[in-house]
Design brief:
Layout (H helix, E strand, L loop, with lengths): L3 E4 L4 E7 L2 E9 L18 H4 L7 E6 L2 E10 L5 E9 L5 E7 L34 H4 L5 E6 L15 H15 L4 E10 L1 H11 L5 E7 L5 H6 L8 H9 L5 E3 L1 H7 L5 H4 L12 E6 L5 H10 L5 E6 L3 H6 L1 H15 L12 E8 L2 E9 L8 E8 L4 E3 L7 E6 L4 E7 L4 E16 L5 E9 L8 E3 L2 E3 L2 E6 L31 E14 L4 E7 L20 E6 L6 E6 L4 E3 L2 E3 L1
Helix pairs in contact: 3-4
Amino acid sequence: MSTETARTSEFITITQTFDGEQVDVVYKQARRPPDIGEGGDDEFAGNGYLGYCPPFQTRSYEAAPGIVCDQDQPVVLRDGTTIYTDIYRPDTDVPVPVILSWSFFGKRPGDGLTQWNVKGVPPETISLMAKFESVDPGYWCHHGYAVANVDPRGVGHSEGDISVHGSQDARDGYDFVEWVAEQPWCNGKVGMAGNSGVAVTQWAIAAQQPPHLACIAPWEGTFDLFNEAIYEGGVPGLTFHSILVDLLSGPNLVEDVGEMARRYPFFNNYWRDKVADFAKITVPAYITAGWSHIHLHGAFEGFRHAASTRKWIRAHRDFEWPDMYSPDNLEDLKRFYDRYLKDIHNGWELTPPVRLEVMDAFDCDYQVDRAEREFPLARTQYEKLYLDAASGSLSAHPIETESNTSYDAAEGLVTFDMTFEQDTELTGYLALRLFVEADGNDEIDLFVNIQKLSTTGEWLPTSVLGHPHPGAWGKIRASRRALDEAKSTDYHPVLAQQSEVKLRQDEIVALDVPIWPTSRIWHAGQQIRVQISGHYIREDWFEPLTWQTSNKGRHVLYTGGRHQSHLLIPVIPPRYRDGGYTYR
């Protein structure tokens, strides 16, 4: 509830209440669509799928053979705010279910494109009717589904201010679901689908429990914006969302989550409002997770904790875009929708609850869609690998002799290696306990990669869109090392993020670094490497990801004796072994 508005030269603050806590929420002027005011921002034509907003025109027309588009249709929300949607539907008198794409990306970017240019997806794969990271009407309408591309509150020509996730956006989604289910062309069943931001909104809207929402398909969606993205591991990474906010278009204001992260750097009720209630997500859910992407943690959190008894997850190596539009995965998703939006008994329930790609090296996967019943896997055997600073090695046994090593905090790194004597699969969460000291500073920001080396010591990355990925990763800010004890486990430490305690001179502290889940095989003779640094390391990577570190002086790592720094690994034994034969 807004109680007060204040303006500065760039920002507008509106005091709002979140579960009893008053917070000054920061907004800024959104980029203006081209037919508002003096003609809008000149940049729109050049920004394609993110910020583009075409002129307003309510009409119905043939968008493609057999597909009707009801363009810029008004929808009035419970508080009287009007938002607009484009409905693509089969040209038929038979009622059909509808798949909803809900995000702050513009609903009709195709008007500003000659063709989609999505990394990893060949040209002309996606029709110009599709919204960014969303289902394509050019496919789904031909299979008996309507697609609703929505500009939520404040986006494009919709009234109000843009909310970046949160309960207001979720309530608006509830209202839209109930509105669209009542349209004469709809059979009363609504599903949701989409990648990334279009997946994040599904968690929140599903938790509102709109009666006509029949199922969701959040393919790679962050669950907790603060802990998984903006302050992952306590390290501030504000640039990405600041850039994102600057691209969004609308007639009024946009919530500036980047600036909010600067002003509210700890987890409060404002940030909690952007986390869906697991216990209220009860509809069937088909989830995907990319082993190499920023939404990985949230996807598995959603799968593990959502209250739905009908939920499935598929984890894969490559990036979300080619995964979403591949023919095999489209057909797989269609089976899910046919079951829950058309009530076709097609055997979907026999789909394994968990399907995993077990990665090897480059674009070679050891296993594809391996069936499992749960995650983490019940047969996991957790083992500790102890770091030895004296030798730069890892050992299966505690290190008796104390030693330490150090590196330049801003630019240096250190590694610890061990050879696996037999084939070893690691699937699940890892955790790294480190004893550290800040020499010449009161803070440490650490970045960790769990890498694979060949039998002769060469780095073996996995391949993502043709780019090398280092492997499972984690990060931590030392001053935020306190854990949420109620949520933490040995294999999955969870930071509290409620306060910070800076390091004192000569103080050695224990850090529990959460490593995001993975699934990978090491063949006999190959090596595992723990790479530790004070800076983010990605060679030839394509995403604009940066972190605002506070590193200077040297980082000192302690091992052995009283300081048993170690990596906890999830070893998966074979299902069956006989003589020289192994089945995983």
